[in-house]
């Protein structure tokens, strides 16, 4: 953190930190109360899948709430305000990606599995190695994602609560960790889903309001808004064309293509998104929930486009870039500009709720995978009862809370969008290839599954380790040394095809195909819903 | 399977159905139902109704996936390598890049709508029929 920069007077008015503290406290009290009253702790199905009792539209709002993280809301609006069009490219990738879920994954996953991604992947394979692999992949991806969100929380409160000391930020991260563990422990999946629904609704309402206010200021002429934005951005009219951020040379262009691939293919492999499909009673409701999510997110991302350029127009790109949390402050600063303390309070509440809710969803997913895949099916070879599973999941949630608080404090100040992009690359390369193969390719077997998952995870890890992210550049994690053999920041363009190829080769290394009966059962079940769990 | 004493029938059937339902034995309603008369999935898989359903699903989702991925990747490549084309103004400050970007949104919701209509009319009734048949013979 640059202290000289942070000593500058806060761009927000003096009274707002108190308002924001009150809003945050109120939000925590209200959501905890909701979580307490809807809680369901009786069975493992209640705890991990909310008894599959949510409707499609409810789960659609929750999906949007789960998916639109702080990186989406604050990060994209800020990126558009400062870099222009290149920020918009993120939102397109995030949105189009949902078609993979709609067409290929959601319904079949709902019909075949019960609590976790491992249920589907191990359905017709040798159970223990495949469960172990999917738990490893789930834990790695969710931890990356979670630490990114926690790091974002630190920067955000610096702006909204005017907490500037490192200790103060660490304390806030710890409070976030504590509250989210409470959500998960008290409410299980049902409570967490309601938090997502509240947060998703708040988020959509506030972005729609800001967008309407904004367009109103420009007489509902988007073109006039754009003109003003160009006038207030040092890049001028270049912010309407791609290339401001990723256009310098061949490497950065390729890096952009790699990131885009990871975004569009990553969503269908994100374990916390996949787990949401188990909270509805049938595959048809799972389909409806994706449709709702797609419509809501289209609205949301179109609004962030207006908000991003609007922030450039009304606040000015230089003021945003110099604010305490940089690009991430574009949306809050704009809210204050168009709606005063009231709208700022609303946006702060939404941003804070976003971090809490997303992190709670991730914690639940990771702990479910640990308890259900690793503990019950690998360590205990299926001897653990459902009560033991829930107990283990609860303890894991507490451990994960502690890990993510520590991780969040350590990486505080790292670029959130980068960490999230990395989680997407991991998800796309470790999970998507195996999910698609296991659902649609009869010959696919255990060896292929393991090759696909571990090659994706391993190549991602190695490529990131030897990328400019870790060393060789002034803003790398280890700036002094240079062992960056791989030029791209995002490994997607190599790792994703590699995992598809390795899954294919691995399949043919094992001579005998897997159990034909199980394959038949899986295929019939995934397409027709025969025998699917309904509660 | 070289166990000296064969496991009781119930346990063996739990083993065969594997990890999904049987691991929750006592609390799960479907586990008891399935252990009595599990449907023969291989027969269903080979039946004409099911192969027709599967063909129908695949003929829709695979080409559609290829289509939207190609359109998205084409757009990304234009954004990465054809800056001048994307900066071409169309109306006022709105240029080709912005229009193509918004068009990605439009195609996404259009594909969603088409798929839902297709699934409602051409998949769900047939899937329901197969499921109904299985559940009837089970009882």
From TrEMBL, chain A:
One of its GO terms (biological process) is plasma membrane acetate transport. Pfam families: SSF. It is a multi-pass membrane protein. CDD domains: SLC5sbd_u4. InterPro entries: Na/Glc_symporter_sf (IPR038377), Na/solute_symporter (IPR001734), Sodium:Solute_Symporter (IPR050277). The chain crosses the membrane at residues 20-39, 60-82, 88-106, 132-161, 167-185, 197-216, 256-278, 290-315, 342-371, 392-410, 416-438, 450-470, 490-509. Keywords: Cell membrane, Membrane, Symport, Transmembrane, Transmembrane helix, Transport. It is found in: Cell membrane. One of its GO terms (molecular function) is symporter activity. GO terms for cellular component: plasma membrane. Belongs to the sodium:solute symporter (SSF) (TC 2.A.21) family. This is Cation/acetate symporter.
From TrEMBL, chain B:
InterPro entries: DUF485. The keyword Transmembrane helix applies. The chain crosses the membrane at residues 59-82, 94-116. It holds the Pfam family DUF485. Keywords: Membrane, Transmembrane, Transmembrane helix. Residues 1-28 are annotated as: Disordered. It comes from the Bacteria. PANTHER family: INTEGRAL MEMBRANE PROTEIN-RELATED, MEMBRANE PROTEIN. This is Uncharacterized membrane protein (DUF485 family).
């Amino acid at each position: 953190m640059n202290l000289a920069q942070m000593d500058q007077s806060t761009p927000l008015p003096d009274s707002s930190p108190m308002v924001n503290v009150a809003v945050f406290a109120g939000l925590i009290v209200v959501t905890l109360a909701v979580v307490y009253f809807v809680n369901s702790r009786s069975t493992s199905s209640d705890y991990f899948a909310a008894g599959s009792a949510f409707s499609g539209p409810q789960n659609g709002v929750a999906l949007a709430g789960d998916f639109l993280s702080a990186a989406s809301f604050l990060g994209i609006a800020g990126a558009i305000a400062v870099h222009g069009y290149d920020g918009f490219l993120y939102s397109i990738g995030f949105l189009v990606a949902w078609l993979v879920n709609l067409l290929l994954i959601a319904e079949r996953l709902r019909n075949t599995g019960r609590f976790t991604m491992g249920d589907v992947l191990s359905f017709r394979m040798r159970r223990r190695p495949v469960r172990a692999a999917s738990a490893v992949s789930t834990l790695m991806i969710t931890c990356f994602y979670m630490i990114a969100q926690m790091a974002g929380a630190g920067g955000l409160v610096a702006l909204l609560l005017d907490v500037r000391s490192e200790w103060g930020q660490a304390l806030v991260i710890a409070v976030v960790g504590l509250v989210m563990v409470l959500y998960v422990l008290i409410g299980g999946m049902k409570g967490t889903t309601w938090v997502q629904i509240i947060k998703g609704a708040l988020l959509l309402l506030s972005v729609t309001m800001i967008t309407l206010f904004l367009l109103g200021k420009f007489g509902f002429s988007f073109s006039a808004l754009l003109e003003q934005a160009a006038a207030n951005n040092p890049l001028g009219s270049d912010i309407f064309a791609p290339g401001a951020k990723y256009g310098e040379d061949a490497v950065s262009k390729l890096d952009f293509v790699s990131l885009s691939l990871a975004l569009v293919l990553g969503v269908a492999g994100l374990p916390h998104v996949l787990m949401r499909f188990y909270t509805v009673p049938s595959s048809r409701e799972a389909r409806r929930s994706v449709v709702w999510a797609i419509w809501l997110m289209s609205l949301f991302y179109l609004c962030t486009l207006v908000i991003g350029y609007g922030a450039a127009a009304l606040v000015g790109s230089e003021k945003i870039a110099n604010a305490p949390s940089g690009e991430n402050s574009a949306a809050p600063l704009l809210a204050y500009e168009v709606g005063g303390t009231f709208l700022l309070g609303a946006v702060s509440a939404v941003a804070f709720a976003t971090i809490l809710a997303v992190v709670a969803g991730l914690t639940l997913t990771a702990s479910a995978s640990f308890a259900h895949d690793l503990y019950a099916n690998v360590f205990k070879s299926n001897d653990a009862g459902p009560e033991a599973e829930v107990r283990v999941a609860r303890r894991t949630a507490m451990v994960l809370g502690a890990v993510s608080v520590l991780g969040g404090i350590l990486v505080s100040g790292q670029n959130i969008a980068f960490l999230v992009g990395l989680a997407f690359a991991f998800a796309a390369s470790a999970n998507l290839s195996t999910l698609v193969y296991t659902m649609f390719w009869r010959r696919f077997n255990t060896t292929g599954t393991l090759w696909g998952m571990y090659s994706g995870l391993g190549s991602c890890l190695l490529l990131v380790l030897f990328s400019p992210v870790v060393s060789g550049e002034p803003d790398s994690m280890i700036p002094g040394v240079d062992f960056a053999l791989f030029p791209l920041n995002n490994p997607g363009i190599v790792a994703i095809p590699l995992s598809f190829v390795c899954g294919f080769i691995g399949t043919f290394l094992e001579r005998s195909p897997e159990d034909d009966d199980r394959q038949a059962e899986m295929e019939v079940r995934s397409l027709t819903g025969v025998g699917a769990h309904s509660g | 399977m070289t166990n000296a004493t064969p496991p009781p029938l119930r346990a063996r059937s739990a083993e065969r159905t594997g990890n999904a339902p049987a691991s929750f034995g006592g609390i799960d309603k479907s586990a008891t139902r399935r252990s009595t008369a599990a449907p023969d999935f291989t027969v269903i898989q080979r039946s004409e109704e099911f192969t027709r359903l599967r063909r129908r699903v695949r003929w829709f989702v695979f080409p559609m996936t290829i289509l939207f991925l190609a359109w998205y990747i084409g757009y990304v490549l234009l954004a990465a390598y054809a800056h001048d084309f994307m900066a071409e103004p169309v109306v006022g400050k709105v240029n080709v890049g912005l229009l193509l970007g918004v068009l990605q949104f439009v195609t996404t919701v259009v594909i969603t709508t088409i798929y839902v209509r297709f699934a409602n009319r051409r998949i769900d009734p047939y899937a329901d029929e197969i499921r109904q048949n299985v559940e009837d013979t089970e009882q």
